[in-house]
Amino acid sequence: MGLLNDAEFNRLASFIYREVGIKMPPGKKTMLEARLLKRLRILKLPDYKSYCDYLFSPAGMTAELHQLIDVVTTNTTDFFREPKHFELLQQNLLPHLANGPCRGRTLRVWSAGCSIGMEPYTLAMVLAEFRERTPGFRFSILATDISTQALEKARAAVYDEERVAPVPKHLKFKYLLRSKDRSRGLVRVVPELRQLVTFQRLNFMEEFSFPDPMDIIFCRNVIIYFDRPTQEVLFQKFCRCLRGGGFLFIGHSESITGMDLPLNQVAPTVYSRHATRRADG
């Protein structure tokens, strides 16, 4: 089996950028080649040229596109990742929203780029705990990702025991079930918590909207894979989906400095949408 040549790599890289916004510079060629090798073996294709021919055929566009996206997307995630975000949410933002803008209605939260579900289930734990202390508080969580494979894992909600190490002990006891076969070292999120999260496939490069604006958007460590112009366009889309006075959380390695966005910083990597502008404006 030959190597992925430059013409094939450039064709795939251009297609990946158009479809999902992820830049594949020449330095990623070896990585792409290695990740696609498994697909070649599964499809019983002799080389990368055959793979490209199949991918860009009508049948490939139907059957293989999602597989390619799963190959190139990175699903790095953890429970309670960047914990200061969840501290701010519990101590400041949820009391503010529950006693003001969201009084008498459902708080809407979106985990954008949810990977295999650890972020939205963390949010579900935090919100469920707050609900117990706050009579009348209601919330919904939407979790989206482009990877169908990641979403399948998220819905299953089964994780290796070491992956749940960051979850506080009292929340582990309350929201996680250990496998009956302890030797497998697996845990599963309890049904009551799984039911609080709705998972859905969404491609950021396509136009998207929701029937009601979001109060909180978590999009952390996702835009680092996009170039700067794509990042700004994406954040503009998020702002159109975010209610005035709502909050956007981004990753600590990410920045919106210099972008023309209707946002005010309220904490490191946490922003509030201008309340004076319409959520669809």
TrEMBL record:
Transferase keyword on record: yes
SMART domains: MeTrc
Domain (CheR-type methyltransferase) ranges: 1-276
InterPro entries reported in the protein's UniProt record: Bact_Chemotaxis_MeTrfase (IPR050903), Chemotaxis_MeTrfase_CheR (IPR026024), CheR_C (IPR022642), CheR_MeTrfase (IPR000780), CheR_N (IPR022641), CheR_N_sf (IPR036804), SAM-dependent_MTases_sf (IPR029063)
PROSITE patterns hit by this protein: CHER (PS50123)
EC number(s) given by UniProt: 2.1.1.80
Entry's Gene Ontology BP terms: methylation
Domain of life: Bacteria
Signal peptide range: none
Reactions catalysed: L-glutamyl-[protein] + S-adenosyl-L-methionine = [protein]-L-glutamate 5-O-methyl ester + S-adenosyl-L-homocysteine
This protein's UniProt keywords: Methyltransferase, S-adenosyl-L-methionine, Transferase
Molecular function, one GO term: protein-glutamate O-methyltransferase activity
First-tier enzyme category under EC: transferase
PANTHER family, per the entry: CHEMOTAXIS PROTEIN METHYLTRANSFERASE (PTHR24422:SF26)
Record's protein name: protein-glutamate O-methyltransferase
Naturally occurring in which organism (per UniProt): Megalodesulfovibrio gigas (strain ATCC 19364 / DSM 1382 / NCIMB 9332 / VKM B-1759) (Desulfovibrio gigas)
